Amino acid sequence: MGPEAMARLFAGRLHYAWVVVAVMFVVILASVGVRAAPGVLIVPLQQAFGWNAAAISGAVSLNILLFGLVGPFAAGLIQTIGLKRTVLGSMVLLVIGSGLSAFVTQIWQLYLTWGVLVGLGSGAGMVGLATAVANRWFVNRRGLVVGLLTAGNASGQLVFLPVLASLVVSHTWHIVPVVVAGTILALIPVVMLMLPESPAAIGLGPFGAQTIVAMPPGSGNPFAIAIAGLRRGAGSADFWLLFVTFAVCGFSTNGLVATHLIPFCMDHSIPEVGAASLLAAMGVFDLIGTTLSGYLTDRYDSRILLFWYYGLRGLSLMILPFTDFSLASLAVFSVFYGLDWVATIPPTVTLTNQVFGKNDSPVIVSWIVAGHQLGGAMAAFGAGETRYLTGSYLPAFLASGIACLMAALMVLRIARRRPAEAPA
Questions:
Q1: Distance between CA 192 and CA 203 in Å, rounded?
Q2: According to the model, what pLDDT value does residue 407 have?
């Protein structure tokens, strides 16, 4: 049984595009969950090997940076070898990298496994892939689909953390990479069975259209495709506004909060499992917030949405260090910040589609996401170094909050114009 047989099972009941979204949501959720695991490993690795937070954060920073840099080339790879093969290749790298990391004894081994292999394999959770799925399988509801898939991207970084933290407490840190590698390995047959290359491959038109549009055969060099997308984007001021503001998004989310909130809470005598539960709560509310953001993006000005998202996020980051870190204050922060975690992605993708057109947007948005990961890498390393040098995360959180407020003003300058291509 393959994707064609699975499509026949759903014929007349549900458009298979929604099955593809469900499959990719689970894959993205698990894939990004692999990248989030170091959040619960920083303190155990310090205790086991005597490595300082800055050294461990460097491996996390490398992971985040490579995740961003590989995105445009993975988007080009989709156009060359196809969506399904790209996803499967990413998952294999995640299994190898996370599995081998259970046996590290030297810091360079952590950089090689979790930094390089997992960073390169994280293309399965990239925003460019979510954009490609939405543009390939949907004519209507693209904003909602991008919201759902990117919610899985962010929530995957958070929802597994309490389970992983509990495993660290009840067993040893070695169990965490084994569990996450096994989870990805179990999903590979699901992708092989249920993910078609395109609607036309199973005799369907995209959701919202009756016409079956055949995908052009894979061709070209993925590196050339990625560089061509960068050249087109780099000539536009809108690209740089999107790039810089999305770098701030990464600086304030996966680089700072996802990586350092647990040790920040432990500095205030909050147990690791309790701190991980706060991040998991953020993941649940992010799923709600980002999906809602996709719904709003289909209906309202994306620039105005981004203004509020960045502005409110900046205020919350600046207030948090001055709270008493009580259960009530942290619960309010988790709900508020979780709703805004990556609500920025659907309007950012929509603006990219509007400026550059849907054919080029998966590659160009992947370069914009590279900015997100560059910002995240800076925060992951910088916040760890700040904690090491000053003994406090306060400067890192204040800097991130101020950057968000600046981004809130910058997004208002992003132009809205019709894409150069004709509508599909």
A1: 18
A2: 94
